[in-house]
User: Which sequence fits this backbone?
């Protein structure tokens, strides 16, 4: 296989969608002239993504150009994937057996020194977005799973008062990031803000080239019953329900929900309490791409909540969450699901920002 034809510069992926561990083998083209030792990292109906063993480069290859045994192998994996999806569709999602968390890398961009939110890119496999905490510019950063710097950009006409979390989702064919300016340590602020932007384009070589991106929508909201401090935001991708989990100074926290509001900057919308969780000091959350799993993070462990096909989030959060051991971080305030909807990724605040993963066994 021609390296020049198939290498996608800077594209690095660390997950195997819906299958668990990556699949390593010798791959050959249909003509039998070229071979490569590589891991299969992901595939769809037309292409596969391979990571070559010798230099960890990632190739994207058309299925039609693979040898017949390789096409059959991918076909078997596709059937496994469909079986997994079908099993998840009946009742609740399958219980994921997670392995031990591990440090993947340190982020190359030195400007990322207080990573407080993390989101998986929906537009580019293997890319992530993060932002710094309070006292920084309204800026988002992109990086790959090897920590490579994919650039950064500012949000136009926006200030970052106390950004605490972010979420990614797809709606009407477009990929979005929602940023939570919801920090409220002194509980003095009655109104918080969420900023919606489209994912900035990431060039294969130059990364993010836009200096600024426009804010599509700013949502002003208050909690229905009290002032709250919040560091955990997620968006249900199935209906765009916004979920927030408060950071309390005791052993409980509160889950609030808000339907996606109309674009009205003059109105303050209400987030209503839907559950009380018996866990302390929540610092982040995310919802899986299929809308079936929610992960809620603390400084030490994480808690996973799942819902069946006919259940809503109040029902899911009414059950005790499954505690998952997370890798030790100095000050871990971010978590997200990878594109597979199962692998978890985390960062920690501070310079030389580490990136961790907790993958299924």
Assistant:
């Amino acid at each position: 296989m021609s390296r020049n034809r198939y290498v996608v510069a800077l594209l690095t992926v660390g997950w195997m969608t819906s299958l668990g561990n990556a699949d390593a083998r010798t791959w050959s083209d249909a003509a039998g002239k070229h071979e490569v030792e590589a891991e299969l990292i992901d595939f769809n109906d037309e292409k596969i993504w391979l990571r070559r063993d010798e230099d960890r480069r990632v190739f994207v290859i058309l299925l039609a150009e693979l040898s017949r045994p390789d096409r059959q192998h991918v076909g078997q994996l596709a059937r496994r994937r469909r079986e997994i999806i079908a099993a998840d569709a009946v009742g609740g999602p399958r219980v994921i057996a997670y392995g031990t968390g591990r440090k993947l890398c340190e982020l190359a961009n030195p400007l990322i020194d207080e990573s407080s939110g993390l989101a998986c890119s929906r537009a580019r496999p293997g890319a992530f977005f993060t932002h710094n905490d309070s006292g920084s510019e309204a800026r988002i950063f992109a990086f790959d799973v090897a920590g490579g710097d994919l650039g950064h950009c500012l949000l136009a006409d926006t200030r970052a008062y106390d950004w605490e979390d972010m979420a990614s989702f797809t709606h009407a064919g477009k990929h979005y990031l929602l940023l939570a300016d919801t920090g409220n340590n002194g509980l003095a602020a009655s109104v918080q803000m969420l900023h919606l932007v489209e994912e900035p384009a990431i060039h294969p070589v130059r990364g993010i080239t836009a200096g600024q991106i426009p804010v599509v929508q700013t949502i002003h909201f208050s909690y229905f019953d009290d002032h709250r401090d919040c560091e955990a935001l997620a968006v249900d991708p199935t209906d765009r329900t916004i979920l927030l989990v408060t950071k309390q100074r005791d052993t409980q926290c509160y889950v609030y929900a808000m339907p996606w509001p109309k674009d009205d900057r003059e109105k303050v919308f209400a987030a209503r309490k839907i559950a009380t969780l018996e866990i302390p000091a929540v610092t982040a959350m995310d919802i899986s791409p299929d809308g079936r799993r929610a992960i809620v993070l603390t400084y030490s462990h994480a808690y996973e909540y799942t819902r069946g096909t006919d259940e809503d989030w109040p029902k899911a959060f009414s059950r005790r969450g499954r505690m998952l051991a997370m890798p030790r971080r100095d000050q871990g305030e971010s978590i997200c699901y990878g594109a597979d909807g199962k692998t978890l990724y985390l960062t920690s605040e501070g310079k030389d920002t580490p990136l961790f993963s907790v993958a299924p066994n």
Notes: Residues 1-22 have pLDDT under 50 and may be disordered. The chain has three helices and 27 strands. The two ends are 31 Å apart (CA to CA). The first strand starts at residue 23 and ends at 28.
